[in-house]
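Quick one, C-alpha coordinates below. Sequence please?
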Protein backbone atom coordinates (compact mmCIF):
# COMPACT_ATOMS: atom_id res chain seq x y z
CA UNK A 1 0.00 0.00 0.00
CA UNK A 2 1.11 3.56 -0.75
CA UNK A 3 0.38 6.07 2.03
CA UNK A 4 0.79 9.79 1.37
CA UNK A 5 0.17 12.93 3.41
CA UNK A 6 -1.98 15.36 1.44
CA UNK A 7 -0.33 18.64 0.49
CA UNK A 8 -1.15 21.58 -1.73
CA UNK A 9 1.08 20.56 -4.64
CA UNK A 10 -0.58 17.12 -4.77
CA UNK A 11 -4.13 18.44 -4.58
CA UNK A 12 -3.46 21.02 -7.29
CA UNK A 13 -2.97 18.13 -9.73
CA UNK A 14 -6.39 16.72 -8.80
CA UNK A 15 -8.38 19.86 -9.65
CA UNK A 16 -8.78 20.31 -13.42
CA UNK A 17 -8.21 23.66 -15.09
CA UNK A 18 -11.14 25.50 -16.65
CA UNK A 19 -11.26 26.31 -20.37
CA UNK A 20 -11.58 30.02 -21.05
CA UNK A 21 -14.31 29.35 -23.64
CA UNK A 22 -16.31 26.92 -21.49
CA UNK A 23 -20.10 27.20 -21.29
CA UNK A 24 -22.65 26.53 -18.54
CA UNK A 25 -22.59 22.84 -17.74
CA UNK A 26 -19.04 22.20 -18.92
CA UNK A 27 -17.71 22.55 -15.36
CA UNK A 28 -19.97 20.10 -13.62
CA UNK A 29 -23.64 19.33 -13.01
CA UNK A 30 -24.42 17.91 -9.56
CA UNK A 31 -27.43 16.35 -7.85
CA UNK A 32 -27.89 16.55 -4.07
CA UNK A 33 -30.50 14.25 -2.48
CA UNK A 34 -31.14 14.76 1.22
CA UNK A 35 -33.16 16.41 3.93
CA UNK A 36 -36.09 15.55 6.17
CA UNK A 37 -38.65 17.21 8.42
CA UNK A 38 -35.96 17.70 11.09
CA UNK A 39 -32.74 17.95 9.09
CA UNK A 40 -33.62 20.56 6.49
CA UNK A 41 -30.20 22.26 6.51
CA UNK A 42 -27.96 19.36 5.49
CA UNK A 43 -28.70 19.33 1.73
CA UNK A 44 -28.51 23.13 1.65
CA UNK A 45 -24.97 23.04 3.02
CA UNK A 46 -24.00 20.33 0.54
CA UNK A 47 -25.53 22.15 -2.41
CA UNK A 48 -23.89 25.49 -1.68
CA UNK A 49 -20.56 23.76 -1.06
CA UNK A 50 -20.79 22.11 -4.49
CA UNK A 51 -21.46 25.50 -6.08
CA UNK A 52 -18.66 27.14 -4.11
CA UNK A 53 -16.12 24.68 -5.47
CA UNK A 54 -16.84 25.83 -9.02
CA UNK A 55 -19.66 23.58 -10.17
CA UNK A 56 -21.91 25.15 -12.81
CA UNK A 57 -25.29 23.68 -11.82
CA UNK A 58 -26.63 21.99 -8.67
CA UNK A 59 -30.02 20.30 -8.44
CA UNK A 60 -31.25 19.90 -4.86
CA UNK A 61 -33.85 17.15 -4.33
CA UNK A 62 -35.57 17.47 -0.96
CA UNK A 63 -38.91 16.56 0.66
CA UNK A 64 -41.64 18.93 -0.49
CA UNK A 65 -42.15 20.12 3.09
CA UNK A 66 -38.67 21.73 2.92
CA UNK A 67 -38.98 23.36 -0.49
CA UNK A 68 -40.09 26.87 0.52
CA UNK A 69 -37.43 27.46 3.22
CA UNK A 70 -34.73 25.95 1.02
CA UNK A 71 -35.58 28.21 -1.90
CA UNK A 72 -35.62 31.16 0.51
CA UNK A 73 -32.05 30.43 1.63
CA UNK A 74 -30.52 30.98 -1.80
CA UNK A 75 -31.70 31.80 -5.32
CA UNK A 76 -28.72 29.80 -6.59
CA UNK A 77 -30.34 26.45 -5.79
CA UNK A 78 -32.40 24.53 -8.33
CA UNK A 79 -34.87 22.76 -6.05
CA UNK A 80 -36.66 19.53 -7.03
CA UNK A 81 -39.43 18.54 -4.58
CA UNK A 82 -39.63 14.88 -3.59
CA UNK A 83 -43.26 13.78 -3.61
CA UNK A 84 -43.01 12.14 -0.17
CA UNK A 85 -41.53 13.28 3.14
CA UNK A 86 -39.24 10.24 3.13
CA UNK A 87 -37.42 8.42 0.34
CA UNK A 88 -39.89 5.95 -1.15
CA UNK A 89 -39.97 4.01 -4.42
CA UNK A 90 -42.58 6.43 -5.72
CA UNK A 91 -40.45 9.44 -4.82
CA UNK A 92 -37.43 7.91 -6.54
CA UNK A 93 -39.43 7.10 -9.67
CA UNK A 94 -40.71 10.67 -9.92
CA UNK A 95 -37.25 12.10 -9.21
CA UNK A 96 -35.55 10.03 -11.91
CA UNK A 97 -38.09 11.28 -14.40
CA UNK A 98 -37.43 14.92 -13.47
CA UNK A 99 -33.63 14.84 -13.61
CA UNK A 100 -31.56 16.19 -16.50
CA UNK A 101 -29.83 13.48 -18.52
CA UNK A 102 -26.41 15.12 -18.36
CA UNK A 103 -25.71 14.82 -14.63
CA UNK A 104 -22.03 14.34 -13.81
CA UNK A 105 -22.22 13.45 -10.12
CA UNK A 106 -24.52 13.14 -7.14
CA UNK A 107 -24.33 13.04 -3.37
CA UNK A 108 -27.01 11.20 -1.41
CA UNK A 109 -27.91 10.86 2.26
CA UNK A 110 -27.34 14.13 4.12
CA UNK A 111 -30.21 14.40 6.61
CA UNK A 112 -32.26 12.08 4.37
CA UNK A 113 -35.13 10.11 5.88
CA UNK A 114 -35.40 6.75 4.10
CA UNK A 115 -38.67 4.83 4.32
CA UNK A 116 -37.70 1.98 1.98
CA UNK A 117 -34.18 0.63 1.57
CA UNK A 118 -35.10 -0.62 -1.89
CA UNK A 119 -35.89 2.96 -2.88
CA UNK A 120 -32.34 4.00 -2.02
CA UNK A 121 -30.89 1.00 -3.86
CA UNK A 122 -33.01 1.78 -6.93
CA UNK A 123 -31.85 5.40 -6.92
CA UNK A 124 -28.20 4.37 -6.65
CA UNK A 125 -28.45 1.74 -9.39
CA UNK A 126 -30.31 4.07 -11.74
CA UNK A 127 -27.77 6.87 -11.34
CA UNK A 128 -24.83 4.50 -11.82
CA UNK A 129 -26.51 3.15 -14.96
CA UNK A 130 -26.47 6.75 -16.24
CA UNK A 131 -22.72 6.95 -15.53
CA UNK A 132 -23.24 9.40 -12.65
CA UNK A 133 -20.37 9.42 -10.14
CA UNK A 134 -21.63 9.06 -6.56
CA UNK A 135 -20.80 10.24 -3.06
CA UNK A 136 -22.78 8.52 -0.28
CA UNK A 137 -23.08 9.88 3.23
CA UNK A 138 -25.12 9.61 6.44
CA UNK A 139 -28.35 7.60 6.03
CA UNK A 140 -27.25 6.27 2.62
CA UNK A 141 -24.43 4.38 4.34
CA UNK A 142 -26.10 1.02 4.94
CA UNK A 143 -24.59 -2.41 4.14
CA UNK A 144 -27.39 -3.24 1.68
CA UNK A 145 -25.98 -0.76 -0.85
CA UNK A 146 -22.49 -2.27 -1.02
CA UNK A 147 -23.22 -4.91 -3.71
CA UNK A 148 -24.30 -2.09 -6.07
CA UNK A 149 -21.09 -0.13 -5.71
CA UNK A 150 -18.24 -2.49 -6.56
CA UNK A 151 -15.81 -1.08 -9.13
CA UNK A 152 -18.01 1.94 -9.82
CA UNK A 153 -17.08 5.60 -9.42
CA UNK A 154 -18.31 5.77 -5.82
CA UNK A 155 -17.05 7.45 -2.66
CA UNK A 156 -18.46 6.73 0.81
CA UNK A 157 -17.81 9.33 3.51
CA UNK A 158 -18.52 7.82 6.95
CA UNK A 159 -17.54 9.01 10.39
CA UNK A 160 -16.61 6.24 12.82
CA UNK A 161 -20.20 5.32 13.77
CA UNK A 162 -21.35 5.21 10.15
CA UNK A 163 -18.30 3.14 9.28
CA UNK A 164 -19.42 0.55 11.83
CA UNK A 165 -22.97 0.52 10.43
CA UNK A 166 -21.68 0.12 6.87
CA UNK A 167 -18.87 -2.39 7.41
CA UNK A 168 -19.67 -3.95 10.80
CA UNK A 169 -16.59 -2.81 12.70
CA UNK A 170 -15.85 0.34 14.70
CA UNK A 171 -12.52 2.03 13.85
CA UNK A 172 -10.72 3.02 17.04
CA UNK A 173 -8.54 6.07 17.59
CA UNK A 174 -5.33 4.33 16.54
CA UNK A 175 -4.21 5.91 13.26
CA UNK A 176 -2.60 2.65 12.17
CA UNK A 177 -5.82 0.69 12.74
CA UNK A 178 -7.96 3.32 10.99
CA UNK A 179 -5.71 3.22 7.94
CA UNK A 180 -5.73 -0.58 7.89
CA UNK A 181 -9.53 -0.81 8.13
CA UNK A 182 -10.14 1.83 5.45
CA UNK A 183 -7.73 0.15 3.05
CA UNK A 184 -9.21 -3.30 3.71
CA UNK A 185 -12.84 -2.33 3.13
CA UNK A 186 -12.09 -0.08 0.18
CA UNK A 187 -10.28 -2.94 -1.55
CA UNK A 188 -12.86 -5.61 -0.66
CA UNK A 189 -15.79 -3.51 -1.90
CA UNK A 190 -14.21 -1.81 -4.91
CA UNK A 191 -14.93 1.71 -3.65
CA UNK A 192 -13.16 4.76 -2.29
CA UNK A 193 -13.60 5.22 1.47
CA UNK A 194 -13.18 8.59 3.16
CA UNK A 195 -13.18 8.04 6.93
CA UNK A 196 -13.70 11.40 8.63
CA UNK A 197 -11.89 12.34 11.81
CA UNK A 198 -9.18 14.57 13.23
CA UNK A 199 -7.08 12.94 10.53
CA UNK A 200 -9.15 12.01 7.48
CA UNK A 201 -8.18 8.70 5.86
CA UNK A 202 -8.95 8.32 2.15
CA UNK A 203 -8.20 5.12 0.24
CA UNK A 204 -9.20 3.10 -2.81
CA UNK A 205 -7.47 0.03 -1.38
CA UNK A 206 -4.26 0.69 -3.28
CA UNK A 207 -3.32 4.28 -2.51
CA UNK A 208 -4.11 6.02 0.78
CA UNK A 209 -4.06 9.72 1.57
CA UNK A 210 -4.03 11.26 5.04
CA UNK A 211 -5.35 14.74 5.78
CA UNK A 212 -4.26 15.95 9.21
CA UNK A 213 -6.60 18.82 10.12
CA UNK A 214 -6.10 19.57 13.83
CA UNK A 215 -9.30 21.63 13.85
CA UNK A 216 -11.45 20.67 16.88
CA UNK A 217 -13.89 23.47 15.98
CA UNK A 218 -15.02 21.32 13.04
CA UNK A 219 -16.96 19.01 15.34
CA UNK A 220 -19.88 21.41 14.87
CA UNK A 221 -22.82 19.91 12.96
CA UNK A 222 -22.84 20.29 9.20
CA UNK A 223 -19.14 20.18 8.36
CA UNK A 224 -19.62 16.68 6.95
CA UNK A 225 -22.47 17.96 4.78
CA UNK A 226 -20.15 20.63 3.38
CA UNK A 227 -17.59 17.90 2.67
CA UNK A 228 -20.18 15.78 0.85
CA UNK A 229 -21.00 18.71 -1.41
CA UNK A 230 -17.32 19.27 -2.11
CA UNK A 231 -16.80 15.60 -2.97
CA UNK A 232 -19.69 15.68 -5.44
CA UNK A 233 -18.46 18.96 -6.89
CA UNK A 234 -14.97 17.57 -7.40
CA UNK A 235 -16.38 14.35 -8.89
CA UNK A 236 -18.32 16.40 -11.42
CA UNK A 237 -14.99 17.57 -12.87
CA UNK A 238 -12.63 14.69 -12.11
CA UNK A 239 -13.85 11.13 -12.71
CA UNK A 240 -11.25 9.67 -10.35
CA UNK A 241 -13.02 9.13 -6.98
CA UNK A 242 -9.80 8.89 -4.96
CA UNK A 243 -8.42 12.16 -6.34
CA UNK A 244 -11.77 13.94 -6.03
CA UNK A 245 -12.38 12.89 -2.42
CA UNK A 246 -8.78 13.70 -1.46
CA UNK A 247 -9.09 17.17 -2.98
CA UNK A 248 -12.44 17.73 -1.26
CA UNK A 249 -11.23 16.79 2.21
CA UNK A 250 -8.11 18.91 1.80
CA UNK A 251 -10.14 21.97 0.76
CA UNK A 252 -12.64 21.35 3.57
CA UNK A 253 -9.78 21.16 6.04
CA UNK A 254 -8.18 24.36 4.75
CA UNK A 255 -11.47 26.19 5.13
CA UNK A 256 -11.86 24.79 8.65
CA UNK A 257 -8.40 25.98 9.68
CA UNK A 258 -9.07 29.47 8.30
CA UNK A 259 -12.43 29.74 10.07
CA UNK A 260 -11.05 28.40 13.35
CA UNK A 261 -8.32 31.04 13.16
CA UNK A 262 -11.00 33.73 12.81
CA UNK A 263 -13.60 32.50 15.28
CA UNK A 264 -11.84 30.03 17.54
CA UNK A 265 -14.18 27.30 18.73
CA UNK A 266 -17.31 29.24 17.75
CA UNK A 267 -17.63 28.50 14.05
CA UNK A 268 -20.66 27.21 12.17
CA UNK A 269 -20.77 25.26 8.94
CA UNK A 270 -22.11 28.34 7.15
CA UNK A 271 -18.78 29.96 8.01
CA UNK A 272 -17.05 27.17 6.09
CA UNK A 273 -19.10 27.97 2.99
CA UNK A 274 -18.09 31.62 3.15
CA UNK A 275 -14.41 30.66 3.35
CA UNK A 276 -14.36 28.23 0.42
CA UNK A 277 -13.71 30.75 -2.40
CA UNK A 278 -10.65 32.15 -0.63
CA UNK A 279 -9.06 28.78 0.07
CA UNK A 280 -9.83 27.49 -3.44
CA UNK A 281 -8.48 30.51 -5.29
CA UNK A 282 -4.87 29.20 -5.35
CA UNK A 283 -6.17 26.15 -7.26
CA UNK A 284 -7.86 28.20 -10.00
CA UNK A 285 -6.37 27.71 -13.47
CA UNK A 286 -7.79 28.92 -16.78
CA UNK A 287 -6.47 27.61 -20.09
Amino acid sequence: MVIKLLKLSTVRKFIPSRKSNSRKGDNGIVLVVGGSYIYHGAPILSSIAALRCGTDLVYTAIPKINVVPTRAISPNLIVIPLVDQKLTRGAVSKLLGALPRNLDSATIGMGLAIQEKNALINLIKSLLDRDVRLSLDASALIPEVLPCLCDKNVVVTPHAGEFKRLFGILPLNSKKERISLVEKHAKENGITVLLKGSTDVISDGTTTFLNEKKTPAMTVGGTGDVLSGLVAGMLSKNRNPLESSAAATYINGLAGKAVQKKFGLHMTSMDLLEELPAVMKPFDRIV
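Residues 136 and 148 are 12 Å apart (CA to CA). The longest helix spans residues 241-263.
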